[in-house]
From TrEMBL:
InterPro entries: CheY-like_superfamily, NreC/VraR/RcsB-like_REC, Sig_transdc_resp-reg_C-effctor, Sig_transdc_resp-reg_receiver, Tscrpt_reg_LuxR_C, WalR-like. Residues 146-211 form the HTH luxR-type domain. One of its GO terms (biological process) is phosphorelay signal transduction system. GO terms for molecular function: DNA binding. This is DNA-binding NarL/FixJ family response regulator. The modification 4-aspartylphosphate is found at D54. Keywords: DNA-binding, Phosphoprotein. Residues 5-119 form the Response regulatory domain. PROSITE patterns: HTH_LUXR_1, HTH_LUXR_2, RESPONSE_REGULATORY. It holds the Pfam family GerE. It comes from the Bacteria. The lineage of its organism: Bacteria, Bacillati, Actinomycetota, Actinomycetes, Propionibacteriales. The keyword Phosphoprotein applies.
Amino acid sequence: MSSRRVVVIDDHDMFRAGVRSEIGASVDIVGEGADVDSAVKAIVAAEPDVVLLDVHLPGGGGTEVMKQVHQRHPEIKFLALSVSDAAEDVIGVIRGGARGYVTKNISGAELVDAINRVAEGDAVFSPRLAGFVLDAFSGAIDISSVDEDLDRLSQREREVLRLIARGYAYKEVARELFISVKTVETHVSSVLRKLQLSNRHELTRWATDRRLV
């Protein structure tokens, strides 16, 4: 079997370099992209077997990349590779056309196996994430209400929401996202207002009920 042709899309240069180093001997990495525009150009130019796609990208996110590419090349397969294991990210990217979703703690050998399986038409998920997909189809997660509420929040507000709901202090959120504590406070106030919640305890319960943490 010839090497799978792969394009790697992620907005962190170091992460793309790490993927290339980890799996470059087993697959043929034929392109890279760091935002929606560069991703679409790289994918259309290379026409790879599989695209490794980060969910959160400047310019509209991974779903926008899939939408634009599939208009021209519906046969190209996408495998989401993300640090996020939140239900709405998993469901959103699968709805957008990805054939699988794995998290960034996956080993190189497991990633190569996932790429080969997706290229052959299989769907591949990290075990915990497969549960989200099944729950969504069974109705255990009300995806429409999750989408509607989350659509009110910016990408940064969603990140802050998730960390606060996981019990991070404001200082820890600031350090994790490379922003000031004052900016964290501003985002939390905005999230509470948009979701009509009163405090971080309600916010945590809201996020937990929707399986966002």
